[in-house]
Amino acid sequence: MTTFTAHLFGRSSGRRSRLALPLVLVALSGLAVVGCDEGDATVAALERARLALNDISLPSQPVGEWDAGASDPAETALTKVVADLRPITTQGSTGQKAAASLLMAQAQLGIADRRAAYAALAEREALYALTPIRMKIDAMLSMASRSSALVAYDPTATIEQLEGLIRSKDAEIGQRQRDRAQIEADILLLRQGAEERLTMAAGQRDEAARLSVAAMALSAHDAGVQMEQIHTLRRQADAIELDGANLLARAEVRQPELNERELMVGQVVSQKAELVAALASTRARATESAAEASEHATAAAGVASEINTLVEATLDHRKDVADARVSKAIESYDAAQSAAGAAAADGYGLVGTAAQGRGDMLWLRAQNLRHTGDLLEQLGSIEVPPALGEGERQALAGTLATYAQRARTLRAAQRQALTDAAGAFEQARDSFGRVRGGDEATRVRVNRLTQLLDLCRRGANGRAIDLSTITDEPATFGDDEQPAPEAGEGDVTQGAESSGG
Predict the structure, then answer these.
(1) pLDDT, tens digit, for every residue of 230-259?
(2) Which end of the chain is more exposed for a tag (fewer CB within 10 A), N or C?
């Protein structure tokens, strides 16, 4: 199972695994009833095949380099098992044919899984190859954009606008400085008033203290009269001191406002400095010649040539390697499905597994076609720098138009892959649904496959795909969502990219 549906159905692909043979063991256990003794060569061959399959470990990752001289040990062993079983599927008894078909289907599934691993590796390589192309596209867009800007650049309006903004900033600076000065003056008056009152209060307290000392030498009556005067002085000092404190508090309250005004003045001064720098830069650019625009346009054309070389290599890799490997994996899944189908009801589970594997491969193809199509679509939308010579402009325009056409072709292939994937997932769902004695896990799998094929149909119709919407809740769909769409033109937006194979 590829990484696409592995996370949907809870199977890990991160370790080595042995081929599981539950259905095959059931079929082989019935051979004795058919009437074959232990020395029967066919039964012995079936047992050897079963043991061979049981001993074959499938590495979680592809091994070796994929080239004309390389071979996969696991696939080689599985291919031998298929070759040994093939005669039995046509010459044995009914039970032997069924058992051989199940064993062959299991071996073909193992081969398909190996080829699927190599296909996934090739598709990853194809995706990695897009990264340097995207980087060069960014560089080309930057060069072409600068060239076009230089050609079309008329600084007159910009200079006038900047000069007007600078005058506006000068006026703003003046106003903000006046606001700051007014606040500074207000704070100064408040602090001066507070200082005067605090000084006055201190003087009255000193006078009260002097009178208190003098009262000690007076008669009781005179001392009482003087104490009233002392209390009056102290109350007045308290009131004056409180008024001074209030003035000081008002000054402190306004200090943040003054700080803010100072900051705002600094900001406007900084903004003016930026405008002045921009004005100087604009005036400097006004003296640049058209040669600079031509220089950037020529550089963009050079990068376009490099991009074309990389794109051709990427498309060749897709056609000759990635697509070829996916097709080989699909071919093996189809072979496994055909073998399992020959076992009738006993093969329903393997038929479903093979159909699901085929759907995984088609999904993988669709996802990677989308990424390549996105890149070609972006290339096809790039504007040709006007500073290029007439011949260079026409040549580059033709190349970009070719990219746009190729993008449309890939979009159509992507939609077809999604349509075919939906068909494969539907077949897998129906096959698992026919398994006798299906448990809860099978029900969940059938339900998720139902949702999965619906998402593929949505994608083939140009609608968004979001794998996070797949749940264990029973799937219900409207009639308009069921038929597989006709392949046509239009973009297909895929959600949840990381869920792809």
Answers:
(1) 888 888 888 888 888 888 888 788 788 778
(2) N
